[in-house]
Structure formats: structure tokens, C-alpha cells
Amino acid sequence: MAAVFFLLSLLVLSANGISDEADLYLLPGDIIPIHYDLRLNTYIERFSEESYEYDGNVRIVMVPVEENVTTIVININGLNVTSTVLTVKGSAPIDLGKGNMNTAAQKLTFQLSRPLIVNETAMLNLTFIGRHGSQKVGFYRTAFSENGKTKNILNTQFQPAYARSAFPCFDEPKYKATYKIAVSISNKMASLGYKVLSNTAEERIEEMNGRRVYHFKKTPLPISSYLIAILVSDYKSSPPEYFSSSYPETGGKEFRTWGRETYIGQAKLAQASGVALMDIYTKDYAIPYGFDKVDQAAVADFPAGMENWGLIFYWEAILMTAEDSKQSTVTLIAHELAHQWFGNLVTCHNWSDIWLNEGFATYIEYFGTDKLKIPEVNGNSWELPYQFVVTVQQKCAFQLDIPGITHPLTFDVFDPEEILYYFDLIAYHKGASVIRMWSHTLGLNAFNEAVRLYLRTNKGSVSTPEALLSSFDAFANESASKFPELPSKIFRCWHIQEGYPIVHVKRAPGPHPVYALTQEVYRFRNNSNGPHNSTWNIPITYSTSEDIRFNDTRPTHWLRQNEDSSITLDKFVDWIVVNNQQSGYYRVNYSPSNWKALLSTLLENATVIHEINRAQIIDDAANLARSTAFDYVSYEFFMDLTNYLKFEESYYPWKAALNNFEYLSAMLSKDDEAYDLFRMHVLEIIRNTYDRLSTASRPEDTFQDKLLRSEIISWACRMGYGQCLCNSRALLENHLSNETTMPEYLITTLYCSAVRHNDYLWNKVMEFLLKSENVSEKSIFINGLTCTKNRGSLTVLLKHSIDSEASMEMGERLMIFTLILDRNPENINIVLDFVAVNYKKMHELYGGANVFDDILTKVSKNLGSDEEVSKMRSLIKEMGDSNVMSRDESIWKILETIETNNEWINVRMKDVLRWLASRYR
Q1: Catalytic annotation on 733?
Q2: What is the mean pLDDT of the chain?
Q3: Which of 172, 307, 336, 868 is catalytic?
């Protein structure tokens, strides 16, 4: 029955009308794969001779789903197909020749001498030769240094459309099939300890013709091509552990962590958290894990993580973790393991709905991990659901989801060269934020039941947003909330529209306590592109000075599309706060009198307002003041509001404020006087908290105290607080001389803070970086080195990042650029000038225009002066002329960002300077 449902779902999907672009890039959908037999032969021993070829053959069992199929179209990119034979039951094999190749569309078409009929099984056999590239896509090679020796390994990265560069296939997520994989290595490599891992467990090992062939079991479920994984290495594994033992029909399933022998001892956290999370997910979703084992491997220079079914890859520096990065390690593992259900078991039918995969995985990364209780995380007091609000929704989603520089969650993308750009923070962070809103709106119990139904209904197949929303409909009556119509109709606007709303809350005139609710699109400036008139169906929750109910996130009212609404209270109140715990994906603006009442309450008795809503008030006020499209909140009010932070002890309001100080710091740094006054203000409000927390841990510290201490030290030292600089310097000097140890969770912060204004320590840490081969250590050193205020030292570090002789992984090279931009926005022009001089060498070393898209996008966030705008325009033109940066959409977004910043400098900067001057000049 599952197979029939799967075929029918593909028929429905392929019947939908598609655009000319879709017709060019997508496969026709008239024939689908059922099974692959894939054999790859590798030759690492030839790498010393600069021979990087491999060969293979694939047999694809396929079935037509339409009448009279006269062509077979498959995906292929960069492979040399040496033979193609088609076999149909009852007919002799047919040599199809080389076919007709469309290189731009990455499609190979074979004309058939007779049409295939519906459900007629055909087998397409292809032999081919491929090449292991050095870019981190396809079936690629990578190298690392261990004990003074260079070692080579092979691994795969097929998402989103790179399986076709490793073997001929139907390379779209909706084409699921079973696989049986075999990979061979030479006996020479086997004698050096090399072996092969893939998605399923080893079935047998075959010795033949001087080679060792690893045969793997057939995948137990159909799998999309982008999830196929292969690793050829001499890695060692942790002792196996077992999960899902609560399912007697399957028994416990094996979980192992793999890595270099040097680092495998650092895998305890990854192993323990992975096993525990698999048990949590199996219980939460009431569906056993679909494959026979989970291997997770730490790959040198791998881009973050990849959820391949049964063989998950991570960047080595993340998986083999240091103490201060426990949370980031565990949440990344939680994200990739969540994909085993959301993405692997149930897959978005095409990349236009990638948020179904990534939004759910990001949501679970926070809300699933919150259930993790193992000794390695000390009981887990991370409060990740609260962290989500200030780090995911406020800092990322809201800042990026701006009309003109964003896109809806659901969008059309077909070009394989474009798809990767849409694996962005809109898909991940807006997707997760909207899902979080839906969970609060339905109520957690109804939401979880609906998600289980969604998984059960679509397991082993592909899905759409409509399928998800229909699962919500099934449990609408069991929800604690009242819906004006079916959730599928209410929620649809959130995934098909870009941007998000501001809800205006104003007391209506008259003798009754009535608050009028209206909405409009939030934007940074008036003349930005994108829709300005969109409306949403918005769930409304609220608390008042007389009715404190911040913990109730079930909507009591709805602000509908194209309709106004209102809240009628029993009596007049001092203040109202809308959007309890910022559970809805929207900002809130109030009348001036309500804003002032909230400020008075924060100054007098802040804790009466929930800490997440205190963070919301700060973030909403800051961004309403920042926008040049509105004049709802002044910078005078926002800066007054920040004064209450002198007495704030919660991490979350502080995090919201410091997130917004980042923008002010970057823009005000264009004017020396403005920046000096800004530093005075930050130090004025931060000093009490620094003195309370200092740099020394206390027995009573909560995890949030530690997070706050890290942030406060970073900002106090960055703003030049003498006591902070002295303490940090002393701690780092003692640490480097092995006299004392620093608190593990503060290592990265203290390296950065101590090095920021100290050239001697910078040189010392640079020496350590040049000598180190430990990935965790190098990450800490780079974090510290990028904080220096010395322009000459930053230039030295940037030059080191493009030195082809330097012993650095690509991720470490790019980390230097990223961290300078994050930690050193005041010195942004150093990076811009460096890229202008060295972009050709960087392109040769890094490859791919997307690297420059990423770097220049990050640079643009901190540029805004007239000179910087002119400089960036010239650089983009020069790089475009050199074909180094050619993606028009990225260029447009970069220019839109710096024009927006330029407008802020011309319109809003004087307001901030006026306030600062009135207090500190």
C-alpha cells in the first residue's frame, strides 16, 4: 500500500503545471526509479600521481507512470558515460549510445526505439568515469595532517543536487528509491587501515583482483539521491551503543561515532547525546528509526553537518568538541538527527519547500534538545526554548525577513546552480519561528499529535506544505485554541508570503477599555522593493498590568487578513503587552502612553513582565526606531529604555539589547565622536552587571548567568572597560603559561577580550595557531586573533588565510573572514580593502562565487557611509566583470543592504547622536 501511495503521489506532483524554467531543469516525471544497484571503484593510492579518477556502474530499475514514454531523462553532471544499455522484460538488451546531453540543465536524454508502457519495468545500466574534486561537493577528496603525515579521505556531499556529479541518477528529492551500494578500495589502502562506510550496515566484504569490495545492505526504505553517503577513510570508531531498544521487533539499533584516531577520544559528548536524542525522537514521533544503524563521522573541513540517512557527516571542529562549545555541538547533532524523520523519512517534494525539512529540524534542535538529560550536559539547564527567541527569531529571522531582500518560505527554484542559495536562514530560522508559532497556536499537545499524523501519513514518501497543514486541521477540534476557520486556511499566508507584520495596539477613544488592533508590513525603509500591503492571520495573546498571564500563549483573539480587530478589557489598565513570550511571528507597536508605561514598569519592577517579553519590548522598540519607513518609536525612547538594563539580571533582555547594539556599533563607528559617546553609554549601563558577575565563576551560577557573563565580558572589553581588559589579560597570560586554567565556557570570550587591545598576546596566540594541529584549539585561537583592534595584525591574519602553504582547512580560512566581520565591525574596511586586492587569489583558492556572496553579504551589513557605498559598488562591478561574482540576486541584496544602512546614517544617526551628546558630552 505504501508503494502504491508513493506512486500516486508522484503522479499528482508530476501532473501539476510547471513553468518554462521548471520544464528546462526538472525531470519530466513520466518515469520513476524504483531501485539502484550502485558500484564505485576508488583509487586513493593514485592521488600521489595527481590521478583523481574513479569508475563505476549503476543499474537503475524504473517504471513508467505515463503511457507511451519515448525518452528516458536522467541527471548527470561532469561524468563520462562509457556505455548505456536498456533492458526491458521480454526484450533483448538495447545499446542506447551516448544520448543527448544538455549541460546547462544537467540532463541526459535517451531516445527509445519503442515506447514504454505504464508499469512496464525497465533496467537502465550505465558505466561511467568520474573525478574526485577538491570542492566540497559530490564524491570529493579531502586531506588532513596527522602526526606530520598528509592523509587523504573520500566522502560525499550530495545535497542539494550533487549526486548527479557522482553517478547518473534521478537527482530530485521526490524521486525516492531503494539502493544497494558496493564500493571497492585497493588492498594497499586496506592494509593502511582504510575501510568504507555507507548508509546501511556492511553485508559482506569481497576480495577480488587485488581489491577489497564492501557490499552494503539494501536500504530498508526508499531514499532520495541527495541522502546517499559514502566515506572512505582510516577512521576509528567509538564503542557502539544502542537506541530504540523499546521496539522489540527491531531491537536496539547501533550508534557509532567515527573520527581520526587522534580525536576519537573527544567524541564522548557526541556519542552520548546522539544515542539519547535518538531515543527521545523515537518516543516523541512514535515511529521507529527507519534504517539499521546510525554512524556519525567527523570530517576534516566539512561544511557544518549533513543528515545523510544512516551516515551523518559533521565538521570535525564541531563534533570533537571543547567544553565551551557543548551546546553548539549538541544542538547541531540534534538538528541532523531530527532530519532522520523530517527530511529523510518524510521529504519535501522539491526544493521549493526546503523549509519543511530545515524549519522542522531547526525547531527540534531547540525544543527536542531541551528534553535531553544526560551527565555530559549536567542535566541540561540551557533553556533552549527561551534562547530560541533571542538568537533565532529576533537576531536572525526578523533581521533577514525584510521585503526586497527576502523570499517566502515556499518559492520556486529549479536551476541546480541556484538551489543551494536558498538553504538560507529564511528556510531554517523563519521556518522554525513560524512552526513555533503554530505549536503555540494549536497548543503543544494538539501540535505534537498533528506532527505524528503528518509523519505517519507521509513516511517513506514526499510531502508538501498542504499535507502538513491538513494534519493540523485533523486536530483543530482538540486544540485549546478557537480557530475562526480551519488551520490550513489560517496558516497558509505565513508560508506563501515574504516578510512579517507589525501589530499596532492603541487604546480606542471612549469610555470603555478597548484596544484597537491593526497591522502593516515591517520594513527597514520606504523605497525598498517587495510587497508593502501584505496582511496575515495573526494569533493574538496579551497580558496587562491587571491580568498577568504571560505563560498563556493560546490566542484569545485573531487579527485577520484585511480586517481590523480589538481587545475589550474588563477595566482600564496601566499597560498592555501583546504577544505573550513572543510566541507569534510579529512585532508590536503601542501608543506613546503605553510605551512610557512599560518603561516605567521596567524601571520600577521589571520582573512583573516575563523575561522573554522584556526582551521582546527591547527588540521591537529598537527595530521600530531603526526603520526609516516609520516614526512610531524614537531613538530617544529606545535609548531611554536601555537605561533600565543597569538593574536587569536576566540574560534574555540583555541579549536582545546587545543584538541591537551590534548595529548601532557598526553604524556609529563611521563617526569617531558618535562612537566614543556610544562607548560611554554602553559602559554606563553594563558596569553594574560586569561588577556583579566579573570573570570568576560562582557555585550558584546558572547556565544563563554563564551566558550573560560571557556577553558582558565581551562587550565591556570591546568598549574599553579597564578592569575587564586587565582581568582578561591576566587570565589569558596565566593560562598560556600553564599556571592556571580558565573557566572552560569562557575560553573563547577571554581569548577575544584579552587579545583585543594587546599586541603581545596577539603575537603569542598567533604562534600557538601556527604550531597547532588540533582543530578545537585552532578554532579557539582564531576566535581570539580576529578580535584585535590592530589593523596591521588583522591584515597579517587575512594574508595568512589565503596563504596556500599555510596548514589550514578551508573552514578555518573562511572562519577568519566571518569572525573579523562578527567581532570587529569597526574595522570592516580592512576586510573590504583586502578582498578588493586579493579576490582573484581567493577565488582560485576557495572556488565558487557563493564564497564571495557570503563574504560580501556579511561585509555589507556593516557598511553604510557614502565612501563605503561607492567602494562596494566599484568592487562588485570589478568582480562581476571578472566572472568572480555573477549572481544578480546576491548583488542586488548586497546593494540594497548598504543603501539601507546609508539611509539610516543620513536619517537616524543624528537622533542617536543628539541623545548621546545630551548625556555624555
Answers
A1: no
A2: 92
A3: 336
